[in-house]
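Run DUF475 domain-containing protein through structure prediction, thanks.
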Amino acid sequence: MKPASQTSALGYFTWAFITTAAGLALGAWLGWTTTGTLGGMATVFFVCTVLAVLEISLSFDNAIVNANKLKEMTPVWQHRFLTWGIVIAVFGMRIVFPLLIVVIAANIGPIDALVLAASRPEEYARIMHEAHLPIAAFGGTFLMMVGLKFFFDHEKDIHWIASLERGMSRFATIKGVEIAFVLVLILVFSSFLHGEEATTFVYCSIYGLLTFLAVEVVGGLLDASQQTMSAAARGGLGAFIYLEVLDASFSFDGVIGAFALTQNLFVIAIGLGIGAMYVRSMTIMLVEKGTLAEYRYLEHGAFYAILILSVIMYCQTLVHIPEVITGLGGAALIGISLWSSIRHNRRERSEHVNA
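Sure, done. The structure for DUF475 domain-containing protein is below.
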């Protein structure tokens, strides 16, 4: 990666722009080959564009959290995440994950699931939507723990919404307080569901909680093992696993929401894959330019957005909430936190000049 001083803001998005051009061209070709009409080609092209924008809007907070974790990683593991990680993110979560859901839900083989996606997209979409409740419960719980971990930290000394965040920092001295909070929410939301749905919600939420705790434990053991890990691997492998699970949790909402626009798995993969490349570019820019250090409340906005996304995922088990609300809500919070950071910086400069 080039030093920040040698790379313009647009320069970070070179590969994202190339991917956009290639992806939209592929989408147009797919539209032409499947429909044989200019209207069909234009429709698929438009859907790919909308899906890319949807993914970018849902993933602002993902990029900020990635950057927050990456700055603690060794250069070797930073590079591995930004290369291997993007392959896993694009192909694993945008293609393999939806296929895996259908494989499990319909009890069919991977090849049969791929054939189903190509030949019977309506049935494929139906199975994906039926799997929404367990996915929302699992992903919502994992993301909620990620958000709460940031705020329930007794060493945290920078507060954006001061009264609220100071209170959470004080409560952080009570072991397991965030886990207890999440468990209470699980019980509350499950009480609005009935029968098998309630049982599924509770079980999948617990799996999400256990996954977060397992990733924390395994990551800590891997990163702290001075005897068995090389110097290059320390401080990297555990964070790499954490970021991959985190990216998967962020992707749940986008993948499921994409089926509201199209039932074509390949169109979804193109659109969301384009968006994932912008997330990668934003992550690199945030790390190299030190943006998180420069704008002190930007992380806060991202983690509040994560908490809101997790609650929305819980609420989606009861009512439908359009993905555009999720994306715009998160982007708005990050925008407000950026504005607050700029105001803080101006105020500090003014005080320094006056002094």
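The first helix runs from residue 14 to 35.
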